[in-house]
Amino acid sequence: MVDKVQSAAAAALQGVLFDGMTIMAGGFGLCGIPENLIAAIRESGVKDLTVVSNNCGVDGFGLGILLENRQIKKMVSSYVGENKLFEQLYLSGELELEFNPQGTLAERIRAGGAGIPAFFTRTGVGTLVAEGKEVREFDGELYVMERGLTADLAIVKAWKADAEGNLIYRKTARNFNPMMATAGKVTVAEVEEVVAVGALDKDAIHTPGIYVDRVLKGAVYEKRIERVTTRPRDEKASV
Length: 239
Fold this sequence. Notes:
By secondary structure, the chain is an alpha/beta fold.
């Protein structure tokens, strides 16, 4: 058995970071993001990064701290509406953006992890999304070709892991993380709990350990809520 568990975020990333690399970062909004690994990337000072992630955190948190530190050169994303700095950097030309429909981004990552170099989808045909890409007709319908995505490093967040790197995600935190875990040359998983080998229900494992190179038990999690939406309080009912 190979024990993949690392003692600290810096140790989990040792030897895999370099300027100009491509990093996939799991999560959806602020849910299921590898907070401790992102902080370690900031502290490393690595720069000119291409980051593949559904979004780029928010101002001052998540991937947003890498934007603030000017470490990201390009984002490959599907939603960027919660980050004012992202907007400013993009409009000023300091940040490149490859915008994807959300399902297309997920499938590009899944395809990359499965060794599929390209696929065809109807999403985006006849729009800016299809500009410069091959469009082909199948059964009377037009489809645009999209390339699979891979990365030098995938950082993912899971709920539980064992020392062999088998992972279980929890609820919405499963978004984007499982497919990214398969698409990195190196995959580092940040988890909330490390259990003994054999303790995980084999039927419940979402990512087999063969895809995971290193495991980190996160030191602390803020688990911020991106946007709180609640109904007005009924004062009469609360009395």
